[in-house]
Amino acid sequence: MRILPLLLTAALAWGQTPVPTKPQGSAKPKVQAASPETPAERLMDTALAFAQKEAEITGGTHRFKVAQPPQLPLLPPGHLTFEASHLSKRDPVGRFFVVVAAKVNDQRVAMIRVDLDGTWVGQVLRARQDLARKTELTMNQLESSPFEGVPPEGALTELPPGQRLRGPLSEGRILTRSDLEPIPLVQSGDRVRLSSTDDALSISVDTVARSRGGLGDHVRLEAPGSRRTVMAVVTGPGEARLEN
Q1: Lower CB density within 10 Å: C or N end of the chain?
Q2: What is the C-alpha separation between 90 and 212, in angstroms, rounded?
Q3: With contact defined as beta carbons under 8 Å apart, do 128 and 143 qualify?
Q4: Dist. CA 122–CA 120, nearest whole Å
Q5: How many Å is the maximal CA-CA distance in the chain?
Q6: Contact, 52 vs 64, CB < 8 A?
Q7: Which of 161, 98, 93 is nearest to 122 (CA)?
Q8: Distance in angstroms (rounded) separating the CA atoms of residues 79 and 206
Q9: What is the mean pLDDT of residues 159-171?
Q10: What is d(CA 96, CA 51) in angstroms, rounded to the nearest whole number?
Q11: Which is more confidently placed, 86 or 6?
Q12: CA 76, 78, 83, 89: dihedral to nearest 10 degrees?
């Protein structure tokens, strides 16, 4: 009879003994690998990078964004790469597009259009006051002012030498290439000293202008006593050079 109490005591003691558990350390966060770019994202990156590179030629600072996501055509399987070809306009401002070649295993398989919007940030020349037609421009009549957006076509950031206004320019208006014309240094009927240089030999003759022109323009000149005319480049007031 003594065996039964001993067995009950042992059973109770066994049931109260805590079961050891394996210590658990702090859980390590799972590192999410960066998902690779999709073909459409790579295409847009190629177009944006090409537009930025081409814009460096024009000066100032350009900002671009994708106007609408491009549509990829059905492409054959293989290693896909993109190579930008050209822009749709010379000045990458406003709405334009980049033509991008899609290549599979280095073979061109499609040409894709990527539409972009571009803005320009820089300095432009504006008229300080109302200026009349034929005004010979100097920087005293103009001011350089900041600009951000889509400037007028041909907007100037510097004043070319030897220019005058083709037409009137109102105060505050941005100066463009189309507003200017060369200041005439030679008028039709003027006497013009024509020079020609060939190696060490230099010859100068007096001629008569049969057309007008500014610095760097081509004018028709006629030698006295001859009806034959030659084309020469205006180099200064009453002076021109025969091109070899």
Answers
A1: N
A2: 31
A3: yes
A4: 7
A5: 157
A6: yes
A7: 93
A8: 70
A9: 93
A10: 10
A11: 86
A12: 20
Strand runs labelled E in the chain = 61-66, 80-87, 94-104, 107-127, 142-149, 163-165, 180-182, 184-186, 191-198, 201-209, 213-214, 218-222, 229-236, 239-242
The pair of structure tokens assigned to 174 is: 């941005």
Phi-psi region of 153 (alpha: psi -120 to 50; beta: other; left: phi over 0): beta
Alpha carbon 184 to its chain centroid, in Å, reads 33
Angstrom distance (rounded) from CA 197 to CA 242: 8
> How open is the CA angle 79-80-81, to the nearest 5 degrees?
120
| Calpha distance 60→62 (Å, rounded) | 7
What is the C-alpha separation between 44 and 72, in angstroms, rounded? 11
Handedness of CA 149, 152, 153, 157 (dihedral sign): negative
What is the structure's pLDDT at 85? 95
Asked if residue 17 has pLDDT above 90, the reply is no
**Residue 128 Cα distances to 62, 139, 152, 242, angstroms:** 26, 10, 18, 40
From the centroid of its chain, how far is CA 142? Answer: 25
Whether the pLDDT of residue 7 is over 50: the answer is no
Structure tokens at 41: 């994202």
pTM for the whole thing?
0.59
CA angle 227, 204, 233 (to 5 degrees): 70
Q: Which pLDDT band holds residue 12 (cuts at 50, 70, 90)? A: very low
Bridge partner list, 84: 100
Domains (ranges, CATH) in the chain?
39-120 (no CATH), 121-182 (3.90.1210), 184-242 (2.30.30.760)
